Structures
1.
Amino acid sequence: MKTKEENFVGVRLAGIPMLLVNLLFLIGIVVLFVWTMNHVESSALTVALVITCVVLLIINTIFWGGFMQIEPNEARVMIFFGEYEGTVKDNGYFWVNPFYTKKKLTLRARNLDAEPIKVNDKSGNPVMIGLVVVWRVADTYKASFVVDNASMAPAVTGAVMVDNVAQKMKAYENFVKIQADAALRFVAGMYAYDHSGSVSDTELTLRSGGEEINSILETQINERLTIAGIEVVEARINYLAYAPEIAAVMLRRQQADAIIAAREKIVEGAVGMVRMALKKLSDEQIIELDEDKKAAMVSNLLVVLCSEEGAQPVLNAGTLHQ
């Protein structure tokens, strides 16, 4: 969706000189009114001058509505009787046509720390996952006219009055939260929690994906927020755990996987040591062993090397065959 945002090219004057002009204009009106009351004797001329002063005062009052101040990372969306005229992003104090509606928007980065939600991963396991999103308004046209701020705003209870800009940013924050949750559920459903069961060791998972998963999540959120003119600066998973109802079971499974992996390493090392022992005995001709003795020796060595308890030595005081 292409942007329709454009820079404001209408009349925009420096604010300080116009402030002085407007003050002098007001002083002139007061002087004219005082002079009329004190020096004009004709009633008809007095009425005409008083009406003139009133009209000029109304014009002066309208002129006061043309001033606007724009701070760094702020913008004003200019609307003239319902028609979009452009956006002012330059910092400073300005005066424009007072009949322009000047919608204020902040372009500053904002943080969203979403509470962990329960989702199902690719394997169907329920997991708790949370994220942090840094976002900002990037397209003032879309932010102002494409998305309905009123429908995005969360419900406000009581009689608390909220500043219009703050309320508008709350609406954007609510929109970002809903879309970020949708993107998070989508990404979490694409990948398994970790490498277990039927998940290959080379497959990307939520636990091992790291920056790659965060990049995919950021892309998904950006796609959903483009319509509102909102840009995601950064998105990352900041909480990941199994849901409480299966956490204990999954912990026991992880412990079992760790024990099995450790046993495999121990057995692999023990077999290598037995092979080396038999080879050295044979190469150095220390002793000749028949197949039965080799089998007994392999059995004893494997028991010693693979056992969790310390081996108890037995001394053979007789011959080899006793």
2.
Amino acid sequence: MTDEYTPPKVWTWDKESGGTFASTNRPVAGPTHDKDLPVGKHPFQLYSLGTPNGIKVTVLFEELLAAGIKEAEYDAWLIRIGDGDQFGSGFVELNPNSKIPALLDRSGDTPTRVFESGAILLYLAEKFGAFLGQPADRAELLSWLMWQMGSAPYLGGGFGHFYAYAPSKMEYPINRFAMETKRQLDVLDRNLAERRFMTGDDYTIADIAIWPWYGGLVKGWQYEAAEFLDVESYTHVRRWADEIWARPAAKRGRMVNRLKGDDHERLEERHDASDFDGLDAG
């Protein structure tokens, strides 16, 4: 049992919280240094990292290109959040929230910035009229997309932080967020027991949003917590996760801006389809 914490009357930030990614958090917004963002040759400039939120967008880009939509060509630049790249002036101008991913669309007369992964998915899907499913299922798609945006912080910032990244193991927060994570997996499992994909027979941005987080969890990519959470029991989620993983575009998307893993499984920056040559890209 640890000593009970008594909060002060007014909280102040006098030290980092400790644990993995402690240096990425601070109680104020805005840039910490001047740094312009690089710009490539393609209409879309993506500034990201191969975390679940970043993977969502690179999977969609690769799916769009695989569907023959050449106008979706993109440059993917690596943002090293451990080094504070997200606090550079150029990145903050693109995303005032200093979180990856951030997108600059230069395909029109005036460049358009888009930040927040869910917003980027919806923006691109609507722009190209792809991966939106059937018109009758639009409300269902939006509901599951927003479910993911609201639920994943409990998984990543809650369970993942206290189980894998906090400086010490604490029973209460691990139990609290493990319970919520398993509830969310059960929500998905029940839905996917009746549907091939999240909204029905169509593979959509709802699947693309959810897969890197919860598909990654049941496939053992997240937090080394598969046994702890008994992911084998969520048979429908595992079936769905495996089907998406079998898609070559999903495999390529998971490689982009990835820092961890074997060399043949990752691509720190992506500027052309040929960058995947020699990699295990499906």
3.
Amino acid sequence: MENEKLILTEEWDKTFPKSDKVNHRKITFHNRYGITLAADLYEPKNAEDKLPSVVVCGPFGAVKEQSSGLYAQTLAERGFLTIAFDPSFTGESGGQPRYVASPDINTEDFSAAVDFLSVQDNVDPERIGILGICGWGGMALNAAANDTRIKATVASTMYDMTRVNARGYFDAMDADARYEQRKALNAQRIEDYKNGSYQLGGGVVDSLPEDAPFYVKDYYDYYKTERGYHKRSLNSNGGWNTTSALSFMNMPILAYSDEIRNAVLVIHGEKAHSRYFSEDAFKKLKGDNKELLIIPGAVHTDLYDCMDVIPFDKLESFFLENLK
């Protein structure tokens, strides 16, 4: 298996400042579909021996220069070797066509990162955890159900992307509405094939309507402002390929989450529009090593980058306890 040659940015182009407490470098690794993934690796300075490690990805439609990199760098400051990666087909990662999302391939991306970490000289392969943000929180739970090497999993401000695509926000979509959406998406497949290119679904709106729902305002405040905008982020720009929704409508990712035996921590904001995803996912988990943490007063994107809201002390203690 050969890694695709990727062009990686050398400059520090993150939405957060660089820490002087960690070493940082770009890496690549491949998944079992042959797609080469780009990632940022963070490790504590002056670290000795083999380290516990954490793989970070998300939010859905973001890139590693945004929230996932912030989580990864901060956990590295606390003693973990971490990587934040761009999912297949997005950011600096490889894969054609661009801007495709897949419940299978994107779950596999987590396991591919575990493959990479498991053969690093400074990583303990028995002490690997994962952390998924937003839509990658659901992917993280799906990966944990399938990959027994993952010893601890965190889902932060989680979305179940298969549920929201199949049922709409707050489960408002019924079977008839779902059928009509399938018709429209399959018609778009024909147009895409004729055109030789894929229609983009659009990222977060460029101009915020006064009557926009709060969750749209919440996303706008992150992706469309200096706070979180990034030129490679799909949500900050043109969005995913429209037809990506088809596979998510048809393939629920949490079917076997009740079989996760290793530790899981689910974190969500009290006032987040998406809170029901985490609460319902948590209800399905089994065992006394599962925990739900609701952050008082927090909305969805507070857990993207608000350092006074993200419970890093809890994340550190959870990973230390379960990666030993």
4.
Amino acid sequence: MKAIVFEKIQQLSIQDKPIPTLNDGDVLIRMELCGICASDLAALRGDVSDYAPPVVMGHELAGVIVESRHSDVKTGEKVTVNPMLSCGVCIHCQNDRDKYCNMIEGIGHDIDGGYAEYIRMPKHGVDTGKLIQVPSTVPPEELLFLEPLGCCLNAMQETIFQNSVAILGAGPIGLLFAQLTKRAGLTTYVFDPLPHRRAIAETVGADATFDISPDDVAHLHEITHGGVDTVISATTNKTAVIKLAFQIARKGAYINFFGLAPEGQELRINLEEFHYTGHKLMASWAFSRSSLEESRQLLLQKVINFKPLLTDQFPITQGLEAFDNAIAQRGIKTALHP
């Protein structure tokens, strides 16, 4: 089968690999679609360290079971995965915080993932509930968003909101956040330097969109009378983004640095200023099992508009071009198919 292998920083290759063989309890998934995640791009740049190359990346996947050696799984089932395989018994796993488990293994991070024609889900993953089945009527173009939507829902549960929210970044994650915050009844503003992404934000319900220029920041201050109640940074937290978050947050606001940050990026705070501005700072990442189940339910209820988000699809044989497309931010979400 064809697969895209992350060999080392700044090096991807398309390789011929054997179709995975199964042990007792394993299942084999034939891939339909797999989305390129910003974390994969960060790993390729060398900005994050939670990958173990050489590895087949890909964790935002949609597929079908084509072979099962597990008594609870039937062939033909449409599935995606919870890509964090954990021990299932430690205090973190018991509290639905699998991501903090000391035994974590990430699909597409540590073990081969979805940028391939087939992927093996090991027995342990099935036994601990990491295989997520959906009805056959759920299209792969929506199913690949179950995991990223679960990440956003987890952040929504952890963040405190009042009346207004600004979302930094109108990529796939920012656009999911925009729909969730509007659904929660919040006045939603979206910042992005790219006009085509701001246009999509407007189509999914943002109340207003802004460039990142000083004039746009001043305009937001004018219409909000001093800034927003909550800021969610849904983009890479570079110095300019961190500065923008504080510029548009009113006194006493909540700021969630959801996005990844380049390696070595620091957040420096004048503690006296911080004391008197009263900002509440936090960071959310990944998902819980409960947020993935909530995401599954929203997919089934068809309350999220995924159609404008998936803009580009490439075959695995054109995987390098697909990564170039995602890096260039030509569309919104880039996905791969066999």
